[in-house]
Amino acid sequence: MDLRTPAVRLVAAVFLMTAAWACASGGSGTDRPDADRISAAELEADQERDVLTLIQRLRPRWLQTRGSDTFSGQVGATVIIDGMQQQSGLGALRQIRAVEVESVEFMNARDATTRYGMNMAGGAILVTMKR
To answer: How are beta strands 124-129 and 78-81 bridged, if at all?
Structure first.
């Protein structure tokens, strides 16, 4: 068999391309943080920080103003702790240390409005406390 024939070259090229593609896509994707959730490992790594500081450092886009409100213009995310909307807004997150939290999650405006009702144009930051 002559290794210089076009058929052999084609088979070798397909094999090399397949091997390169398999190596490039072999990752499980678990090393990339979830954009809408702060993992337990991330919370444990920063136990002494308050939740607002943690969000500012790890997921700053959660704090961007979005949408609009008829009265005030731009709207930020609504803070919901254990299912209860916080009237003090983001300030409530300064009062909670990461060690006290089980999970922190961001919910987009559409999903937050569906689940919690009106005035969720900025989405919602959901905090579940440890029991």
So the answer is: parallel
